[in-house]
Each structure stands twice: as structure tokens, then as C-alpha cells.
Amino acid sequence: MNEDRFGNPHAPNLSYARGKILASTEDDFRKLQHAWRIIRERGPKSTFIFTGLDHSLPMQPEDIAFADDEIGAAIHYERLKELTLEHLGGNAERHDIAVFNRLTGATLATHLTLVRPGDVVVGVSASHSHPSVLRAASHAGARFIDTAGLAEFKAVMERERNVALVDLTRLAVTYEILPIEAIREVVRIAHDKGALVYIDDAGGARVDFELLDRLRDLIHELARARADQRCAQAPQHDEKRRGRPHERARRHRDEVNGYMRRQWRRRHRRRRPPRRCR
């Protein structure tokens, strides 16, 4: 899979094609710096994050005493290890845990530890792996092969011999999810091949299988209800002032409805056969 469905070649170490405006990582960082300048000018109270990802760390005054590398670890590490191994099904005599502030750091550390230059790393998800996975494999000197779905993963595993690691993404960035039966089969095939399995579940850890479709529907319904509410609350006493907020609310509602229609078409369109690397 080295092209998107429009035939555009993927950028190096990325699972998508670049555009003309954001053509490189340097452009991404310049975009971020521009956003930071706006935040500095307007301040945190006028900044709203709509990415859907919560990177904040709310703390109460009584938590400040534990916000230290040594104090927090000394008091809470053993209990954290116990709960983590219990949650993941580990054994304290054989297994340990490592705490990272971001999964990107955990992904890089895992590949540098488990992968040698020249090894093959296979990614599997419902659509494509996150760029951090591709970059970690590249940084470790491995050859990365990305697959979408169980059938494509099986074909690659039958063809490749020197597979050291399988990067399994349960919930892709496109919010397409691998069924639990497919995940079990991926793990079985990897272990039979002698490969280890690394699970990138940054998004999936907070999204349950059964709740995924309901969550999407709920978000859409809340957005539509909010747009209807804004239309209903538009000022009615002043003809000149009434039009502008009323029209803005109506446009917002139309955008939400258009987004819902596009999502429905994307989910129900006939899937094209995946492109294979030659």
C-alpha cells in the first residue's frame, strides 16, 4: 500500500500522501508555530481545542506534592505495576511495566529494543498504521510493510521470512476498528511465525467495540441538536441583527448534516481491493 485510493504516492515514512500546502514535516512544524503565536496573542481562556484528544493534566492543589519524578514513583509505582499487570494479564515474576507520557515514545522505545536493522516489521489495522509506527520502524533500520485487514496481513506473513515484530492497531486514525476475531487471528499468526506483537491502542483504549457506532451517532445527534438550538435562539427583535447569527447557525447545521452524509457514504461504499506493494 504505497498509494492512496486516488493514486497519489505516499510520503516517505507516512501512510498518506502529502499535499502542496503541507508538503513536509517542516511545513507541519511551521503550521504548529503559527498556531502557537495565535494562542500567545489570545491567551488560554480564548483557546478551544477541537481535536477530540485531551492532552491536558488537570491537577488539584493537593496533587502538587506528588508531581515529582522521585516522590510520585516511590509512593505509587508498586500499586501501578500491580494494577497494570492485573489489567493486561501479566505475571509479576516474568513481566514488568514501563510508563511513558506519550504512546509515540513507547512505540519508538519498543522498536529500538525489539527490532534490529534489516528486520521486517508488519503493521496491521483496519485501514493504515499511524505515522509514528512507520517512523519508529524506519529509525530502527527495519523494513516496514503496512497491511489493511486480516486477509492482506496473512498474505504478507506467508511471503515474508524475517518478521521480528507485528504492530497491531485496533482502532485506526480513521476510526475503523478491527474485529476481535481478527485480532486473535493476527496474534496467533504472529506467534506461530516467531514474531512479537506490539499493540498501538492509543485511540482504541478509550473506545469500546460495541459503543463505537453508538458514539458516532451520539456525536452527530448532539451536533445537530446544538445547531437547531442556535437557530432557535437567534435574536428576533432586530431584523438586521437577526440574519447574521441565524444564518451562521443554519450554515453550521448544514455543515453537520453534510458531514453525516459523507460519513454514511464512506462507511457504506463498495470497498476497492487493496493495492499491494510490488
Detailed description of the structure:
This protein has 278 residues and is of the alpha/beta class. It folds into four domains: 1-38, no CATH class; 67-99, no CATH class; 102-206, Type I PLP-dependent aspartate aminotransferase-like (Major domain) (Aspartate Aminotransferase, domain 2), CATH 3.40.640.10; 212-268. Helix content is 48%, strand content 9%. It contains eight helices and four strands, in the order αααβαβαβαβαα. The protein has helices at residues 25-42, 69-88, 103-114, 131-139, 150-159, 180-192, 212-232, 239-268, and strands at residues 120-125, 143-148, 163-169, 196-200. The protein has a four-stranded parallel sheet, sandwiched between helices. Helix 4 (131-139) links the parallel strand 1 (120-125) and strand 2. Residues 237-243 have low confidence and may be disordered.
Topology overview:
Elements: H1 25-42, H2 69-88, H3 103-114, E1 120-125, H4 131-139, E2 143-148, H5 150-159, E3 163-169, H6 180-192, E4 196-200, H7 212-232, H8 239-268
Parallel strand pairs: 1-2, 1-3, 3-4
Helix pairs in contact: 3-4, 5-6, 7-8
CATH architecture grouping of the largest domain: 3-Layer(aba) Sandwich
Average of the residue pLDDT scores: 81
Radius of gyration: 23 Å
- Secondary-structure element sequence? HHHEHEHEHEHH
Structural class computed from helices and strand pairing:
alpha/beta
